[in-house]
């Protein structure tokens, strides 16, 4: 269970899921590998985060420095975002498995519409992987600073405090090592979930591109054969419905996920302005830039999905259906498909908006 089909490794779009699978597997988050050990690790992670929540809030309510308080609340937002991601990945594991099966076996291969589009999809997917790689690399470099810098001031990576003499060894050493490990886990969880979402979203974008190219290239081939033309149009309609169904399911699963992303980003942007202390200002800048890059990735993919889904209507309208021997039912099917394509496929941010580049600019 959880073993990927071999054909994914040769697919330029579905291959994105291979990278996210190995990363999420190392964090016990891959939906298809939720065994007993993974469940135990979920409990261990969540109980540890509850303890860090308590320590972080104790630090926030006992410190007198407004900058330190703002930075502590920023860390609290990151902790909460990580916990939400881990919980949602586990709660929706069965729905994720069904979603992945649909992408594996119902989505068309990237080479279906020709070698040119196959190469284009490979180029775009590589750009996406490179963006996620450098984003994750910069996050890991910043993590090194987060982990090493607080030891100078006898603080902890998560900016926690407790109602006992926790700065006395061995308590401080154990607590520091514990939080340092979990800080790395936090960054890996955030980056892994980002890559997973990117892979799912880009596969939907790729399918719209494949469908458009397939219609452009092959619609007129069977212009004089009504039976073959019916088969072709029905195949395209069924595939369009499959894409819409997967997008709707993905939208429902990530409903609260994207909401927490927006709220966390807004919180970080607001609280970073209060970190006027030089030592904390650098940390605030890292958090601010990291959340902006993360939100840009989501909004860019959501914007591209909306554009590609609506562009399908133009493709159908200009494919030359008026020159073919289509009957009344086929033309009606094309019109209905065209009308549906005029409504963009959008990823909702918890009902408060959609993942668009305009939403990114507003934030």
UniProtKB/TrEMBL annotation:
Cellular compartments per GO CC: plasma membrane
Keyword flag Transmembrane: yes
Keyword terms of this UniProt record: Cell membrane, Membrane, Olfaction, Receptor, Sensory transduction, Transducer, Transmembrane, Transmembrane helix
Short name of any one Pfam family annotated for the protein: 7tm_6
Location of the protein in the cell: Cell membrane
Molecular-function GO term, any one: olfactory receptor activity
UniProt membrane topology term: Multi-pass membrane protein
Biological process, per Gene Ontology: signal transduction
Spans through the membrane: 43-63, 69-88, 128-152, 172-197, 253-274, 280-301
Protein family membership: Belongs to the insect chemoreceptor superfamily. Heteromeric odorant receptor channel (TC 1.A.69) family.
Name the UniProt record assigns to this protein: Odorant receptor
Source species: Aquatica leii
